[in-house]
Amino acid sequence: MDTSILSLLYIFIGFSWWVVALTFGLPITVLLLLSKNFRSAFFSWVYANVAEPLQRTKVCIIRKKAFQILKDSLGDRNSLVPLEILEIGVGQGPNLQFYPKNCNLTALDKNKFFEKDFLRNRKKNPHVSYKKIVIQPAECMRGVDDNSFDVVVSTFLHCSCDDSVAVLQEVKRVLKPGGKYLFLDHTGFPEGDIGLHIQRFFNPLWSLIFDGCFLDRNPSKEIKDAGFSDVQLQKYISPSFRRYLLRHQILGIATK
């Protein structure tokens, strides 16, 4: 689809969102504004039952690409030794299917309402040994020991965390020396692109529905400046017109 036509389409969709949110959907909009608990519960339901199933096929492509990077970075790892993995912002567990065999997973998420769906999804992926789930924000992972993980995974986390710098310092703290941080996130359009203005037009409602997610963030600089010994970062542009707002993405791996 032509870029200008696509931009006009999403401008129309954006206006429609605002009209619905301020008319028929006003009671829900008010609840989302006033209640953090309702916002978290609403987001977990929308993401697990609407957003993720609708986008699953397209998003699986980039998730698979990210975990191939992890596989390549692990090289000739002794597969007989369990891989200790911490996933932060695990949600309902859409990454579990891509995990390598013989790994022990500690799952962390600040949203307690994802836990039921995560436990259900875990049963579909018996190749992953589950250790525990921690309900904490990634900025302050109390109860997670220093130097205890071979790999930390985050996908679409920096878009909605409160402080990317704090998250990255915690990631470094809990990784073993030489450990790997696998990241995948959507980012804003380049400066000056009409897409960036459209993302910012959507942002207030988007962040309410998706519990603090912002469309125009880009954690690339924070990751590069976090003090990892090596950072390999790639950019990816989704070809799907349905993923226009999330078109620009980054993925890669950083080594402690």
Percent in helix: 40-55%
Mean pLDDT across residues? 93
What amount of the residues lies in strands?
A: 15-25%
Structural class: alpha/beta
Q: Taking strands numbered 1, 2, ... along the chain, how are they ordered across the largest sheet? A: 3-2-1-4-5-7-6
- Give the low-pLDDT segments: none
How large is the radius of gyration? Answer: 18 Å
Inertia-based shape: globular
The largest pleated sheet is described as: 7 strands, mixed
Number of helix segments? Answer: 7
**Separation of termini?**
42 Å
Total beta strand runs: 7
Order of helices and strands: HHHEEHEEHEHHEE
Describe the structure.
This protein is an alpha/beta fold. Helix content is 42%, strand content 22%. The chain has helices spanning 3-22, 26-34, 36-74, 115-122, 164-174, 194-209, 220-224; strands at 83-88, 103-109, 128-135, 149-155, 175-186, 230-237, 248-255. Strand 2 (103-109), helix 4 (115-122) and strand 3 (128-135) form a beta-alpha-beta unit. The mean pLDDT is 93.
